[in-house]
Write a structure and sequence with these properties.
Elements (H helix, E strand, L loop, with lengths): L4 E6 L3 H11 L7 E6 L2 H10 L4 E5 L1 E2 L2 E2 H5 L11 E5 L4 H10 L3 E4 L5 H51 L1 H27 L4 E7 L4 E5 L1 H5 L4 H4 L10 H14 L5 E7 L2 E11 L5 E10 L1 H55 L2 H33 L7 E4 H15 L5 E6 L5 E4 L1 H17 L6 E8 L3 E8 L31 H11 L3 E7 L3 E9 L1
Parallel strand pairs: 1-2, 1-3, 3-6, 6-7, 14-16
Antiparallel strand pairs: 4-5, 8-9, 8-12, 10-11, 11-12, 13-15, 16-17, 17-19, 18-19
Length: 534
């Protein structure tokens, strides 16, 4: 069913309301909703709401008339037509009602369902039509007034234009000259755009315009690039990056992004170029070559990283040095006091015991200082590699003998070689430093009464040296850090050491042009293998 039409019934007689309600409640008239208001003042408030499709107004409302009720309203300005109801037919009243703006005049005694329905339906439709006609007339009057004003204004402007025609011609010539000069400047700017290029593309990414010093540097002629597709110049991956970003420019957004291309870096800026209809068919893309900037940033980044590492090394060095020096010095001091005490009581066994402690701690301090000196000289690049022809077997034997004397109780260092004499050009001091570190580490991280195996194998291409122990080994997760400066394995925290030895060994092996590898199992031992090319 269609939406119901709201009808306001203003009458102080309830019987009349019931009669009208019965007439409108017949089946074919169910599209009307009747609202009854017997009070004149309240009726005026309802009329002011302008929410009714039609108003049925009784001529007599006690001491008031329908004219009194509606006198402060113009019936033509209400939301629907006003139909006057009266008890008796009166031609004069009919004329007065029509003149006052009432849509119709009905006699209550003659009311029938069809008559009432037709009057409501006809007058509602007629009211709508009249309202539309009034609105059209109002708009037409405004348009005529506006058009008249426009014509008068146009005539005035035409006179002014005729008066200023010569001045306009003069200004146009000046503008043309300025435009020509501007075009020359524009061409000069675009063709000399530094470290990049200025480009214009259509939606298919075809070059419409391209210029800039970067084109000259890569040997591209700007005349021949027009009409060529951008994607023809780009690898597939870079082409996807360009289209992903530049598609947003065709949506009206400004974009900026960086992209590496042909060993160079570019900063890309894309802006839309709307036409007169504000449609974006073309975009401008400025490509800036930022390779030098990127390289500078990378250098700064590396410098900052190096500085951070140095600061970290300083912190670790201070922490390690304070511990590694304090402990042996404290032992030496206490042992010296005890030696004096035992000397007075002539307890020679105690004197020998603490003399050995002093000697061992002095050796340890000497080793620490040697590590620091070696590390510093290697870091500064002050260590020279001076090879000379030597018998490697003799050098290894001497080193093993020296270290056997300071090894732990019951430890044996065994030497194996495939030849009795191996003559090769090598720096003896560098090689001795490497062997000393590896063998002393093997002794330090192994228990008493254990074996350390040193092998020297000569081949056509290189010399192989290996040092094997059966000590505590290195935890798997920490093996990748073994050659880092100041690194100490978690299972060696209670054993004296600087954490520099293997880092120094690695640098010495690099000086010899060799390689160093290792194999280790936790609590089973470690083997270091060095290969030096002959």
């Amino acid at each position: 069913m269609a939406e119901k039409l709201k009808v306001l019934f203003i009458d102080d007689d309830e019987d009349d309301f019931l009669i009208v309600e019965d007439l409108l409640s017949e089946k074919k008239l169910q599209r009307f909703e009747l609202i009854w208001e017997p009070d004149g003042s309240k009726a005026q408030d309802l009329l002011a709401s302008n929410e009714f499709d039609a108003i049925l107004l009784d001529y007599r409302l006690g001491a008031l008339s329908g004219f009194d009720i509606i006198k402060k309203f113009n019936p033509l300005n209400l939301s629907g037509p006003v139909i006057l109801l009266t008890g008796q037919e009166d031609d004069e009243l009919d004329k007065v009602a029509t003149k006052a703006g009432f849509a119709d005049y009905l006699v209550k005694a003659d009311l029938k369902a069809d008559l009432l329905e037709r009057s409501l339906r006809y007058n509602i439709e007629q009211f709508k039509n009249l309202k539309e006609i009034r609105e059209l007339n109002k708009n037409l009057e405004k348009k005529v007034k506006d058009r008249t004003f426009e014509l008068n204004d146009a005539v005035k402007k035409l006179k002014e234009n005729n008066k200023n025609l010569r001045q306009e011609i003069k200004r146009r010539k000046e503008t043309e000259n300025a435009l020509y000069e501007s075009q020359l400047m524009y061409n000069a700017i675009t063709s000399n755009f530094p470290k990049g290029s200025i480009n214009v593309f259509n939606r298919k990414y075809v070059y419409i315009f391209s210029d800039g010093r970067d084109l000259k540097e890569i040997g591209v002629d700007k005349k021949f690039i027009r009409g060529v597709k951008l994607l023809d110049f780009l690898p597939e991956k870079e082409g996807e990056i360009f289209t992903k970003n530049l598609d947003r420019v065709f949506e009206g957004k400004n974009v900026s992004f960086e992209i590496p291309l042909n060993n160079r870096y570019f900063k890309i800026h894309g802006v839309p170029l709307p036409n007169k209809e504000n449609e974006i068919e073309n975009i401008m893309v400025v490509a800036q070559n930022i390779t030098e900037q990127k390289e500078s940033e990378e250098k700064i980044k590396k410098s900052l990283e190096k500085e951070r590492e140095l600061n970290e090394l300083k912190t670790r060095f201070v922490s390690m040095a304070s511990h590694e020096f304090r402990t042996p010095l404290a032992t030496i001091l206490s042992s010296t006091s005890l030696v004096d005490k035992y000397r007075k009581t002539q307890k020679f066994e105690g004197i020998e015991k603490h003399t050995n402690k002093i000697r061992n701690n002095v050796v340890h301090l000497t080793q620490i200082l040697n590590d620091f000196l070696s590390f510093g000289r290697l870091e500064e690049g002050k260590v020279n590699y001076n090879p000379e022809l030597i018998n490697v077997i003799e050098l290894v034997e001497e080193t093993v003998e020296d270290l056997q004397e300071i090894s732990k109780k019951g430890q044996e260092i065994e030497l194996y070689s495939n030849l009795d004499k191996i003559m090769i050009p090598i720096d003896p001091q560098v090689l001795k430093n490497v062997l000393y570190n590896l063998i002393s580490n093997a002794s330090k991280y192994s228990s008493e009464n254990s074996h350390i195996i040193v092998k020297v194998i000569d081949s056509d291409k290189d010399l192989m040296l290996s040092v094997q122990d059966f000590g505590m080994g290195i935890p798997d997760k920490e093996q990748k850090l073994l050659f880092d400066r100041f690194f100490r394995a978690s299972n060696a925290s209670n054993i004296q050491g600087t954490g520099l030895g293997l880092n120094i060994v690695k640098k010495y092996v690099d000086l010899m042009g060799g390689t160093i590898n290792f194999m280790s199992r936790f609590n089973e031992g470690t083997t270091f293998v060095i290969n030096v090319p002959k």
